[in-house]
Specification:
The structure holds 2 protein chains of 2 kinds.
Chain A lengths: L1 H37 L5 H25 L12 E3 L3 E2 L14 E5 L16 E7 L2 E5 L10 E7 L7 E10 L11 E8 L1
Antiparallel strand pairs in A: 1-6, 2-6, 3-7, 4-5, 4-6, 7-8
Helix pairs in contact in A: 1-2
Chain B lengths: L2 H18 L3 H10 L11 H12 L11 H13 L10 H21 L7 H4 L3 H11 L18 H13 L5 H12 L8 H4 L8 E4 L3 E6 L5 E17 L2 E13 L3 H5 L14 E9 L6 E7 L8 E12 L3 E8 L10 E12 L6 E11 L4 H10 L9 H7 L39 E3 L5 E3 L2 H32 L5 H30 L8 H4 L7
Antiparallel strand pairs in B: 1-3, 2-3, 3-4, 4-10, 5-6, 6-7, 7-8, 8-9, 9-10, 11-12
Helix pairs in contact in B: 1-2, 1-4, 1-5, 2-5, 3-12, 4-7, 5-7, 7-8, 14-15
The chains are: A alpha+beta, B alpha+beta.
């Protein structure tokens, strides 16, 4: 019993370390937000940025916790984060997107294998891809100049399969204008 | 006795050596040759499979496994086969067999002469190894004019000895590919190219086969170079509290017409391509009228046991010549023996980047009642479940069928994808597993989950709950902002609430561990000693 308790405490300490990291980051985000509010500088974009920083960091931290904890010594536990192949922002992949424009990508149908199972929106986020660098974009708003994006799925407790959906890519500035700037992609991710 | 059963026994010998040897370096060599099979919760996988076969044997069968000696003789006989017959062992089987023989020979060399050497290897007739290597050796060109008086019939034996000497001393899987690659690039390779292309088995991580080029002759008489490359990956993943093996393969062959794979890929054809698939019986369409259904029967020796699984599958055509088959348990599992707890995955094939070849990717998430993920992985690797991706599609598309009376089912897209339904399916798993923290195995009482399983499940649930909460809470705050009602106090409250939850999570998990993993005070716990149990 004593041996088991010690092991359990050690494991709990490991988790506490990760939680503390989350708290400290969240605290820094909140502090930054307060400072901006006090100066009258805190707008809707800043708020979205704060929220995505909190959710983004915690999402990947939490999945790191689940993914790095071994199910018995020597087991390589598959990561619960899966990424799709990259998709170009432009329908013409050879054309460069306007460097000043930000694009937003969102799914217009839910990812499914076709068995009537559909992945909830909370499972899916996006990454912008530029060369070897990737930036997590949980709300689908890609940084200005991003040429490619990919899906990021939390595959916890999901069956293996090739899931497909349609996605819409639209420049944010044109969002309030008309639908002519919208581009549709068939997107797929293998889990 | 079936050849596949004997092949399993060859790999089982690795596990037996690891369990029986008192020498740490010998056990470490087993781990290097078959990674992921000697750790806690991993070692003993072959005994698990043997127990599984005994439990599921038909009453008339003899479920005892063959001895290593008998298994090797069976495999040699199967590999030599009768002239004109379709060989019992295809290139994939031979690749597995050559690797197993190489590893066992290295283990024998390592322990030979030591006290307490495992008799299993010491008592083997060394000629058996030579005969096995002969199965994978290329046929040498015989001298036209035998001035020296050498006996032409001994040339294959010489070749086998050369293969044996080339592979001798390989003590880990990482040494295999470089040596095989070097041989494959020789003007006259010692090992048949299609055998050389087979990646070695590993229960953990990635295994890449060496790139292999073969000169072939087209129907018009022109020769061309055919390139094959492949890799397999094995991991462990948990789904709804069940530890599964997650196995993926990626193979490409160029040039290779994709329509040839398309013509054979339907699951109803698999029993015509690989003997591991003993029978694939169509069950018509599912209740939705879209999914096809099949009762899959697999076995290493169908006279002893079979595993029956009722599956549904959808065939889908995607843009850019991508074709997909998704599969999972059938909604109606009539005829299913219920030995398989999880079985889902996909087969995806598409053109290679040069547009001339075909690339086949597969994934299989599988759990079998009573078998650890290690046992399932080795079983799947050795036998045939992964063969679907491992060149089976290429070989089957070009070779004769096992049963010419069994019609080949051509590709046809499933009658229409199921339209997106509002809301999510109630459970993401179609198994009968529950979310309880205990599981039962046949013939035993409840088994407490190892500590690590609880932690993984709890941590994952905590993160998912947090994300759900954060999302909904954030939406409330966002609405307040838009209405001009957001204050600093609101932000403080929002952040404090979520932060407080995070701070308390570890203790909630610890409480759960103590309640579910601990035995009576003063005793060791099942979590400390059970197979698969985690420890830090």
């Amino acid at each position: 019993m004593t041996g088991s308790l010690n092991k359990s405490v050690l494991l709990a300490d490991y988790f506490v370390g990760i939680w503390v990291r989350m708290l400290r980051r969240n605290g820094a985000v909140a502090e930054d937000a307060f400072r901006k509010m006090a100066n009258g500088e805190y707008g809707i974009d800043d708020y979205m940025k704060s929220v995505t920083q909190v959710v983004d960091g915690n999402l990947l931290d939490g999945i790191e916790v689940a993914g790095t904890l071994v199910a018995g010594p020597g087991f390589k536990v598959a990561s619960n984060v899966r990424r799709s192949a990259p998709y170009s922002v432009n329908s013409d992949p050879t054309a460069s997107p306007d460097p000043n424009w930000q694009y937003r990508v969102r799914l217009t149908s839910r990812l499914t294998r076709g068995f009537g199972d559909e992945l909830p929106d909370a499972r899916v986020s996006f990454e912008s891809v530029q060369g070897n660098e990737a930036k997590h974009c949980p709300t689908g708003i890609l940084p200005a100049g991003a040429r490619q994006f990919r899906l990021v799925v939390d595959r916890t407790d999901l069956q293996s399969g090739s899931y497909t959906a349609t996605a819409e890519v639209i420049p944010i500035a044109a969002e309030l204008a008309d639908d002519s700037k919208k581009q549709t992609r068939n997107v797929t991710i293998e889990l | 006795m079936a050849a596949l059963h004997s092949l399993l026994a060859m790999y089982g010998a690795f596990d037996q050596v690891a369990r029986l040897t008192p020498h740490q370096d010998v056990r470490e060599m087993v781990e290097h040759l078959l990674p992921g099979t000697t750790g806690e919760g991993q070692i003993g996988w072959y005994e698990q499979i043997q127990d599984f076969v005994r439990r599921n044997a038909t009453s008339e069968a003899h479920p005892e496994p063959p001895s290593l000696d008998a298994a090797m003789r069976e495999l040699i006989a199967s590999g030599q086969g009768a002239a004109g017959d379709r060989p019992e062992l295809n290139a994939r089987h031979l690749g597995r067999l050559i690797y197993a023989a190489t590893g066992l020979l290295s283990l024998r060399d390592r322990q030979h002469g030591r006290p307490d050497a495992v008799p299993l290897l010491e008592q083997l007739d060394m000629q058996l190894f030579t005969d096995i290597f002969a199965l994978g050796a290329t046929i040498p060109d015989l001298p036209a004019d035998d001035e020296e008086g050498a006996n032409p019939s001994s040339a294959p034996d010489t070749q086998a000895v050369q293969v044996q000497e080339m592979l001798r001393g390989i003590s880990g899987v990482e040494e295999w590919a470089p040596r095989i690659t070097q041989d494959a690039r020789a003007v006259q390779p010692l090992i048949k190219p299609d055998v050389a292309a087979v990646p070695p088995i590993t229960a953990i991580g990635e295994s890449v086969g060496p790139p292999v080029s073969v000169t072939k002759t087209a129907a018009n008489g022109q020769s061309f170079i055919e390139d094959t490359l492949g890799k397999v990956t094995a991991e462990v993943i948990e789904i709804d509290g069940v530890l599964c093996a997650l196995l993926t393969t990626e193979f490409s062959r160029t040039p290779f017409n994709i329509n040839r794979v398309k013509g054979i890929v339907d699951p109803l054809n698999w029993d015509n391509c690989n003997r591991f698939f003993a029978q694939m019986t169509g069950q018509g369409f599912g209740p939705d009228g879209c999914c096809s259904q099949v009762l899959e029967e697999v076995s290493t020796d169908k006279d002893v046991y079979t595993i029956k699984t009722a599956l549904k599958y959808l065939k889908d055509e995607r843009p850019n010549d991508h074709f997909v088959i998704n599969y999972d348990f059938a909604d109606d599992r009539t005829g299913d023996s219920r030995q398989v707890q999880v079985d889902s995955g996909y087969i995806l094939f598409c053109p290679t980047e040069d547009g001339q070849g075909t690339r086949v990717l597969t994934s299989k998430m599988v759990a079998i009642d009573g078998l650890s993920p290690t046992a399932v992985t080795i079983y799947a690797h050795t036998m045939g479940w992964l063969a679907i991706g491992e060149m089976m599609m290429f070989d089957c598309a070009t070779g004769p069928a096992y049963n010419v009376l069994d019609p080949i089912i051509p590709w046809s897209e499933s009658p229409g994808r199921r339209p997106g339904n509002a809301g999510q399916r109630a459970s993401t798993t179609s198994t009968t597993s529950t979310t309880s923290t205990t599981s039962t195995t046949a013939g035993s009482g409840p088994v407490v989950q190892p500590v690590s399983q609880i932690l993984v499940k709890e941590a994952t649930r905590a993160v998912a709950d947090y994300i759900d909460t954060a999302s909904s809470e954030t939406a409330v705050v966002a609405n307040k902002w838009l209405d001009g009602e957001l204050s600093v106090e609101d932000m403080l409250k929002h952040t404090r609430k979520l932060g407080g939850r995070l701070a308390s999570e570890p203790f909630r998990i610890l409480d759960r561990i103590l309640k579910n993993a601990a035995g009576r005070p003063g005793e060791g716990t099942p979590a400390d000693s059970a197979g698969g149990g985690g420890s830090v």
